[in-house]
């Protein structure tokens, strides 16, 4: 005699129970191809950040640093300013830093070519200006005035972006006179002018604005001027890459761009 097994009602009850269990479970997000995605919280930003910055960024970056720290409590940014050429050497020597902000592409390229940074992004531009002592006692109105008898001036060293750009501008203007000295960075040029050691120097529009209390700026026309491009990148040796990339993103955002504009830079 064959025993009859009743499966229909039991199977139906199992399916009902399974459906109820599935209905009570919250759906998870899916990826574009239909696979189930897992949600991972973004890492909290915190810790210390060291930024190697071109000397011409001093005033703007000091304010940007405070704004970024206020936006991300628990963070601390330390800035080290110098000529971009000196900073590139430091970066390639493994200096304990997270970010490099250069005043030119050439010095950034030294670092990326060495494999110590990648994917630099341009965040600002700058222009040259003639800096003279307050009141402009020698009545300097153009680069050609550098050729006048008794006028002394300084430039940055040729390996420094402001020196390279300044030399290009002087060549365009046909100036024959030679600088009294070549300075290690643009802030040294400003100091030579404001202390009266020379009559003039070539720096950036931003430096003239920062030193407005003790120096005047004479504009350089577009056909003789040089536009400086400022790239920034996270360094290979960064000990806090998440925070470093967050700082880069912040620099390209509207709040940081407004601060850079206030100091005389033009946008990314």
The secondary-structure class comes to alpha/beta
The profile of the biggest β sheet is: 9 strands, mixed
- Average pLDDT value? 88
Q: What is Rg?
A: 29 Å
| Low-confidence regions | 1-42
Total number of beta strands: 9
Q: Please give the share of residues in helix.
A: 25-40%
Number of helices, counting only DSSP H or I runs of 4 residues or more: 9
Strand content: 15-25%
Report the end-to-end length measured between terminal Cα atoms. Answer: 89 Å
Topology as a string of helices (H) and strands (E): HEHEHEHEEHEHEHEEHH
Please state the overall shape, judged from the principal axes of the Cα atoms.
Answer: elongated
Topology:
Layout: H1 8-24, E1 47-54, H2 58-71, E2 75-82, H3 84-92, E3 99-101, H4 105-113, E4 121-133, E5 153-156, H5 161-173, E6 181-183, H6 186-194, E7 200-204, H7 205-210, E8 215-219, E9 227-234, H8 241-251, H9 254-262
Parallel strand pairs: 1-2, 1-3, 5-6, 5-7
Antiparallel strand pairs: 3-9, 4-7, 4-8, 4-9
What do you see in this structure?
With 268 residues, the protein is α/β, with parallel strands linked by helices. The protein contains 9 helices and 9 strands. Strands 1, 2, 3, 4, 5, 6, 7, 8 and 9 form a 9-stranded mixed sheet that branches. Helix 2 runs antiparallel to helix 9 and helix 3 runs parallel beside helix 4. The protein starts with 7 loop residues before the first helix and ends in a 6-residue tail after the last helix. The N terminus is likely disordered.
